[in-house]
Amino acid sequence: MATTLLSFLGRVPRTEQGYRETRYDFGDGNLGESTAFFGWSLQRRIKAERLVIMGTSGSMWDHLFEKDVPLAGDEVDAQMKLIDAVHAKAVTAECLAPLQAPLAQFLGCDAYLEIIPYCRDEREQVELLSIMARHVAPGDTVHIDITHGFRHLPMIVLLAAMHLKTTRQAAIEGIWYGAYDSDTGEAPVYNLAGLLHIAEWIEALHSYDKDGDYGVFAPLLGAKGEKLKKAAFFERTTNPVRARSELRSWAGMDHGYLADDPAAALFREELEKRIAWHQDSDRASWERALARRYLEQEDYVRAIIYGMESIISTEINERHGEIDDYESRDIVKDEMRNTRHEFRTLSNLRNALTHGVRSKGRATKKLLESEQELKKKIRDLFRRLKVL
């Protein structure tokens, strides 16, 4: 595992003295050396073991070799050819190949020079993501410098960073932008990696809405998220009593840490909507809410289980019985199977779905051949049994 810097090389204005230089301000009072390429300033700070400089055929590649990089023999000839290619905006990988090794030796790290497309369409955008991923090993710490890229590049880079997190398990520590202000000459540096934290929340919300597991929020909330993880486990193992206890415990915690996590604060309302079932006053209500939610998420097994349990809980409530007593619940379940056709149908569907065997009933077999018909039937049974 190494630290990798992926830096984009653009083309800043050039005067008779050379490319315009800027002193970048990282906010620590040390402006550092003046440079035309922000990647140099960033590399001096993070000291990456692997530096990948990416640019198009029209980028200022000649700037990389203008000053201190020692060149000799064929390398000097390659530099002259590169200067001509830069003027013509026709730099190729072949132009850069002879100069890569001396640059790496001078910098004291692995260095790679990559020609990238202009990212004008999806094919070129995917190609850029592929190039970036090729230079990142599993578990690498990654910094991405977008300062000199095209205006549309930050959107692509955000997706590239998410791609590297997923496919390379990379730790994205920085998405850097040196914001040069031509009016003041100042160039404050911003780290945009916080956008990834927002993206993680969006991804978690999407994952939850797909399968109902709010345990996906736990890693985003640190130690306090463990309550959600436990609640999700109990809910998904059909133990709403324990799940509700964990959710109530989580809701009652001091959430002052949200002030230090703006992304968590932004999504807190959405998270609380998704666990609001625990605020209902009785078990039958919890189970009905969970049955409805799992039906919408097309988790038919859990939807039926919670639907049946809510019917049992409602019946026990009406009899003023002990709602959490297993034997009482079992007795009511058997009675409902014998007296309510709709309940028996739900039970047969549950058995067919759970055990993965063909039902002997023709009607059940037919339902299991069409998701649309199955969902429609469960919804109809829920309405008749007052689950919906």
Rounded radius of gyration (Å): 30 Å
Low-pLDDT stretches: none
- Summed over residues and divided by their number, the pLDDT gives a mean of 91
Q: Widest sheet: strand order?
A: 5-4-1-6-7-8
Strand content: 5-15%
| SSE arrangement, N to C | EEEHEHHEHEHEEHHHHHHHHHHH
Q: Fraction of residues in helices? A: 40-55%
Broad shape:
elongated
- Give the class from helix and strand content and strand pairing: alpha/beta
CATH class identity of the largest domain? Alpha Beta
Number of domain units: 3
* E-strand count: 8
Provide a short characterization of the protein structure:
With 388 residues, this protein is α/β, with parallel strands linked by helices.
Describe the structure in your own words.
By secondary structure, this protein is an alpha/beta fold. It folds into 3 domains: 3-192, Rossmann fold; 199-279, no CATH class; 283-384, no CATH class. It is built from 16 helices and 8 strands. The chain has helices spanning 38-46, 74-87, 93-107, 122-134, 153-167, 194-211, 218-221, 226-236, 240-251, 262-274, 283-296, 300-318, 326-339, 341-355, 362-367, 371-384, and strands at residues 3-9, 14-15, 18-19, 50-55, 110-115, 141-145, 171-178, 189-191. Strands 5-4-1-6-7-8 form a 6-stranded mixed sheet, sandwiched between helices. The chain is elongated and about 95 Å long. It starts with a strand and ends with a helix.
